[in-house]
Structures are given as C-alpha cells and as structure tokens.
From TrEMBL:
Protein name as catalogued: Phosphoesterase
Family the entry assigns: Belongs to the metallophosphoesterase superfamily. YfcE family.
EC number: 3.1.4.-
Keyword Protease (UniProt): no
Pfam families (alphabetical): Metallophos_2 (PF12850)
Keyword entries, A-Z: Metal-binding
InterPro entries in the cross-refs: Calcineurin-like_PHP_lpxH (IPR024654), Metallo-depent_PP-like (IPR029052), Phosphodiesterase_MJ0936/Vps29 (IPR000979)
UniProt domain Calcineurin-like phosphoesterase: residue ranges: 1-148
Cofactor(s) demanded: a divalent metal cation
Organism: Nonomuraea marmarensis
Source superkingdom: Bacteria
Top-level EC class: hydrolase
C-alpha cells in the first residue's frame, strides 16, 4: 500500500491548488494521510480526487474542516495514530506512545519540521509541510509503503 503523508498545507494562503510536485506523488497513492492545518475543507476535497483521505484537525483549521482531533486507523494491518500537535520535542516519543498505546506508527504535523524517529516499538513521522517550509531547506511530504502490517518504507521527500 502506497501512502502519502502531508501536513500543514495552509490553504489558501500557502496552497492555492495542489502543487505539481505534490500531485506527482499523489497520483500513485492508495491512501493520503493529512496531519492537520489544511485550513479549508476544499483541500480535503481536492486530495480526495487522488485517493481516500484521512485527516485530523489542526490548530489553524477553519470551522468547515470536519475532522477529529486524533485518529486511529489500520492500513494493511499496520496500526496508525494521527494527531496534529505532538507537543514539545522533549519526551515526544514516550508521550505519543502513551497517547496511542497500540500504534505501530504515529503521523503528526504542526512544527513544519520533518521527522522520522523510532523507539519503544513505535515509529513517529512528521512529513513537514509541502508549502510552508519555515526554517527548513525544502517543502516536504512523506512517502510510506505498508506491506502486511509492516512499514517497509518511510521517506521524507523534498517538493520545493
């Protein structure tokens, strides 16, 4: 299963429509995970034209964005948790393990800083932002491959 992970697209200020380099990756997606701050529901509709979308609410999402604060789902037997703001970097892995005790992977956003870290039987993954790189050298998204309950690929990909 090919999964594209996004976060912090910040439409319409930063995302007026899907950037071409993002669309290239979305065309091959089986599922899209968006870790919040879509800001307007139109982004979810736009993404859904590529693949099914699972999204959590971010701190900048408007009232038209109907999404839960956290989400737990299973994709091809891999247990995934999603949240927008994972809190401070210090203690993050342990805090997310407590929040999602059964997860194999937690996808989050908010900081715009890509991260792929593992420990205590948990992998945490922040795809960064494809449109608002802040202090990062590139805008980014995440590519995940799941095969029979195993995360076989987790890659942060520059798109700007």
């Amino acid at each position: 299963m090919n999964v594209v992970a996004l976060s912090d697209t910040h439409a319409p200020m930063r995302w007026r429509s899907c950037p071409p380099r993002v669309a290239e990756h979305l065309r091959g997606a089986d599922v899209i995970l968006h870790a919040g701050d879509v800001c307007v529901a139109a982004v979810i509709e736009e993404l859904a034209a590529y693949a099914p979308v699972h999204v959590v609410k971010g701190n900048n999402d408007g009232p038209d964005v109907v999404a839960p604060e956290t989400l737990e789902l299973t994709l091809d037997e891999l247990r995934i948790g999603m949240i927008h703001d994972s809190g401070p970097a210090k203690g993050r892995l342990a805090r997310l393990r407590r929040r999602f005790p059964h997860a194999d992977l937690v996808v989050f956003g908010h900081s715009h800083i890509p991260l792929d870290e593992s420990g205590d039987g948990l992998r945490i993954f922040n795809p960064g932002s494809p449109t608002d790189r802040r202090r990062q050298p590139h805008g980014t998204l995440g590519l995940l491959t799941i095969e029979r309950g195993a995360l076989t690929r987790a890659e942060i990909v520059p798109v700007t």
